[in-house]
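Weekly modeling sync, notes
Attendees: S.R. (lead), two postdocs, one rotation student

Agenda item 3: backlog of single-chain predictions. S.R. asked that every request posted to the team notebook include the full sequence so nobody has to chase files. The rotation student volunteered to paste the first one in as an example of the format we agreed on. Action items at the bottom.

Example entry:
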Amino acid sequence: MELLDRLLSLMPVAGHLDVRCHLGSPWRLDEPPAGEWEIRYHVLLRGEAVVEVGSKGRSEPALRMRAGDIVLFPAGSAHALHDGSGKPARAARKEHVDGLTIATNNSTREGADILCGRFLLPTVPQQLLRDHLPERLLVSSVAHKDGEARDAAFAASRLARLIELMREEAFEQRPGYEMVVNQLSGALFALTLRCASESEAPRGLLALAQRPRLQPAIAAMFDEPEKPWTLPELAALCHMSRVTFVRHFEDAIGRSASDVLTEIRMALSGRKLAQTRLSVAEIGEAVGYQSDAAFQRAFKRHVGMTPAQWRTRSKRDEA
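Predicted structure, as returned to the notebook:
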């Protein structure tokens, strides 16, 4: 889990609960694409739901959610949740109560209770986070079957307790509940990634987190990004040959260690550009570039704009 600790330290994620839904069948929620610094999530507290992602001509297979499941969309995709009946959904009515939007469709038929919110990302280049997570991620907090890993069961249990606390705060709306729920939403992101990394092994960051032999190289790239790391040096930290290291790394994440090092450097430099008054040249040197020109080229190639443009934009966005 050291990788997740380092990632969340570099890119701390906050949370915000937007809507509490109490919907009787037939029901449907359509969500537009997320903003640039957002990852939308839904927690199913009661009932069942079908999740669809994509638009005409490009869609992913539908997912089924059960009570206790959370789904998030790291790619920011438009998506829909519905009851799966195929019937026209009843129109939902929204009201604002003490800072929280509550959606109901006045149907008494069996339906679903859902918490809908956003994980709020810091103003740093997001490739390191978004490019290494699936377009959608479904995680369950329900009890695991016999024989499953103990760590996975513990992760699910903690996630279940957090979701239950969010449910209680959102439904009771006692004084200060809004701040409590938003703080819990930030913790929800970390626990969801932990649970996913311990219960399945997809490619990307979640798979890389399961490779303890690779952690010394990951730690070195986060701790000392200014060093001119070579593959043999990173492999030696992991007590592997260069060939073995490359094979293990690319098998886990589908990308080279050099690419990941560059993304770490871009995230660090983007944060420094947004939060400090250091010059562009000083920031480039701090993340491993020997010349200002080399840093400028690398930053523009990976982020799509110059460091100066990024600094101006990030300050505007944060304001």
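Discussion: group reviewed the output briefly. The CA atoms of residues 6 and 68 lie 28 Å apart.
Action items: rotation student to repeat for the remaining queue; S.R. to check formatting next week.
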